[in-house]
């Protein structure tokens, strides 16, 4: 992990040269949710391929750039597209942007994703506020290797990886805006294939509400870095093992796009609620 420190510094220095502002919120946009950047007063756009040590995003609908600017008075840095282990990247590469955003100054990380809904209450387009997760990504972890105490503790506590106050805020905003949002457990698998009927039964049986291919590595590193985390999942396909239909990437993107306004209301509301606290840390 010691080799990450100069990589983080190089990437952060490059971004500061293009956008000399200290962000307070980092946002990772998942599948189909790129329209959120319309809510940002954009001050800089930086393609990933220009940033030292950043991977390139190859996932469907992921544009692959940082969008830097403000939401209200709060400086934000947004990843328009993320990285996945199924693209061939090690998890330390997948999560490097989280460490870079921490170096730049963020205190709060908002993560979004698209997921398969296993809880029978859920339907396509529902928003899930993640309150816990199950890490089943093939025995890999972004904290493998010799720990560097400059980045975080050897054994970070994961009893509350997702901030309880932010969870309550997100659910309250959904109630106020009159749309469905549930708190639930996210199961992370490596992908890229979707799950079999037997796998859905197993994942539901061990306590999973939704399943996807991201978010958990970024959350682990965020907790390791001392960041508060809010994670939101859009149910894009309903996973009913006994009447399982075919799932396609295009359908997932379309469903995520249709739910984007609801997700945006939650993120904007939380940032507004937290603005004074975030700006006070400057």
Write up what this structure looks like.
- The protein has 282 residues and is α/β, with parallel strands linked by helices.
- The chain has a single domain, classed as Nucleoside phosphorylase domain (Rossmann fold, 3-Layer(aba) Sandwich).
- 33% of the residues lie in helices and 24% in strands.
- It has a five-stranded mixed β-barrel with strand order 5-8-7-6-9.
- The longest helix has 32 residues.
- The radius of gyration is 18 Å and the shape is globular.
The number of helical runs is 7
Structural class: alpha/beta
Measured distance between first and last alpha carbons: 28 Å
Q: Any idea of the CATH topology?
A: Rossmann fold
Going by CATH, the architecture would be 3-Layer(aba) Sandwich
- Could you state the CATH homologous superfamily? Nucleoside phosphorylase domain
Strand count, sense and closure of the main sheet? 5 strands, mixed, barrel
Order of secondary-structure elements? HEEEEHHEEHEHEHEH
Helix percentage range: 25-40%
Number of domains: 1
Anisotropy-based shape: globular
User: Residue-averaged pLDDT, rounded?
Assistant: 91
Which residues form runs of ≥5 with pLDDT under 50?
none
User: Can you list the strand order of the major beta sheet?
Assistant: 5-8-7-6-9
Determine the strand fraction and express it as a percent band. Answer: 15-25%
Rg over CA atoms, rounded to whole Å, is 18 Å
CATH class division: Alpha Beta
Number of strands: 9
């Amino acid at each position: 992990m010691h080799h990450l420190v100069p990589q983080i510094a190089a990437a952060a220095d490059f971004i500061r040269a293009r956008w000399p502002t200290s962000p307070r919120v980092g946002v990772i946009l998942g599948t189909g949710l790129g329209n959120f950047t319309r809510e940002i007063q954009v001050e800089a756009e930086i393609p990933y391929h220009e940033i030292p040590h950043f991977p390139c995003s190859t996932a469907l609908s992921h544009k692959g750039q940082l969008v830097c600017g403000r939401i209200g008075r709060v400086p934000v840095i947004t990843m328009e597209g993320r990285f996945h282990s199924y693209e061939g990247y090690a998890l330390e590469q997948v999560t490097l942007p989280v460490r870079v955003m921490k170096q730049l100054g963020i205190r709060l990380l908002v993560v979004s994703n698209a997921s398969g809904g296993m809880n029978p209450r859920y339907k396509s387009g529902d928003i899930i506020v993640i309150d816990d997760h199950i890490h089943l990504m093939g025995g890999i972890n972004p904290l493998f290797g010799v720990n560097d105490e400059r980045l975080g503790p050897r054994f970070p506590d994961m009893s509350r990886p997702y901030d309880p106050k932010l969870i309550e805020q997100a659910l309250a905003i959904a109630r106020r805006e009159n749309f469905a949002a549930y708190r639930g457990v996210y199961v992370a698998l490596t992908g890229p294939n979707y799950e079999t009927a037997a796998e859905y039964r197993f994942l539901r049986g061990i306590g999973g509400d939704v399943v996807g291919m991201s978010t958990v590595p970024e959350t682990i590193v965020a907790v390791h870095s001392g960041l508060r985390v809010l994670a939101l999942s859009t149910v894009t396909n309903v996973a009913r093992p006994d009447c399982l239909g075919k799932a396609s990437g295009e359908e997932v993107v379309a469903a995520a796009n249709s739910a984007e306004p609801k997700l945006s209301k939650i993120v904007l509301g939380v940032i507004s609620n937290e603005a004074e606290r975030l700006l006070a840390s400057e």
